[in-house]
Design goal:
2 copies of one chain form a homodimer.
Chain A: E1 18-25, H1 28-38, H2 47-51, H3 62-78, E2 83-85, E3 88-89, E4 91-94, E5 103-115, E6 122-132, E7 138-149
Chain lengths: 156, 156
């Protein structure tokens, strides 16, 4: 479970720290709802098309997995944090299909944490996230920098 | 508008080709719905919190922009194509906020297209996508490899 304190700020993210958190059950309804709206490829909508595909069964859109991870990050440590936003994602790897009924957890590693040179009230924390299923398989990996305000502004 | 033929297969993706397509109007309701489900940070839910943030107003989650791009890709050229799936995303850059009322279009560049060495029935096409708003500003960029089956299998 997460060891992050409530209301984390930039200072609370310690490079090298590894935490694991969350238990998100993926439902069939949610898989089909997301795919219908954003990624209606047959293997994300239909059991038979899923079985005939590389995925081996009806499986979630990779973008749905990203959205689920975002929700788990929010619930796990970003809710109430000093997060300011993110400039983007360095890499996403969809390694295994995510199936309805899977229960996902997050392994979060803090790669580095650097104060901003130009804006002394904030810093950027670079995370590596692994989304894991109930079998302990890593289904998705991504590297993701996020800006957090510092607990005390260092002044301008 | 897209110049892609119906039912595109691997052979139809020509490196260097640039196409522009789509007109997706982002609604306030959709921004709040997506954020409520997947990314409930205050600046994605509330006008005032958005104005107080780096975004300058209520703005879509970056993951919502990714999902919208996926839908525009589907409608623009993947529907009915021989797409098999994607191993991941090489890079995502969220460059400008996406606001309710924005009308988004896609600029697609084909970076390269390589037949698979191990699986002769398919190849991987690497795309660079730019999501643009109605002012012509690039709001998001990403680089994305996608597997497509070849029109005629080269045999095993």
């Amino acid at each position: 479970m997460t060891t992050t304190r409530p209301y984390p700020a930039f200072e609370d993210f310690v490079p090298g720290e590894i935490t694991t958190f969350g238990a998100y059950e993926v439902t069939r309804e949610e898989v089909i709802d997301f795919a219908s709206q954003f990624d209606p490829q047959p293997f994300h909508l239909d059991e038979e098309a899923g079985r005939a595909s590389m995925l081996g069964g009806l499986a979630a859109s990779g973008w749905h997995s990203c959205a689920i991870l975002m929700r788990m990050m929010f619930d796990g440590f970003m809710n109430g944090s000093t997060s300011i936003g993110s400039p983007g994602i360095d890499e996403v790897r969809w390694l295994k299909p995510v199936f309805p009924g899977d229960v996902l957890s997050v392994r979060r590693e803090i790669l580095d944490a650097r104060p901003s040179a130009s804006k002394p009230d904030r810093g950027v924390v670079r995370f590596r996230f692994q989304l894991m299923n109930q079998k302990g398989e890593v289904v998705m990996e991504q590297t993701n920098p996020i800006f957090f305000a510092r607990r005390q502004s260092a002044g301008a």
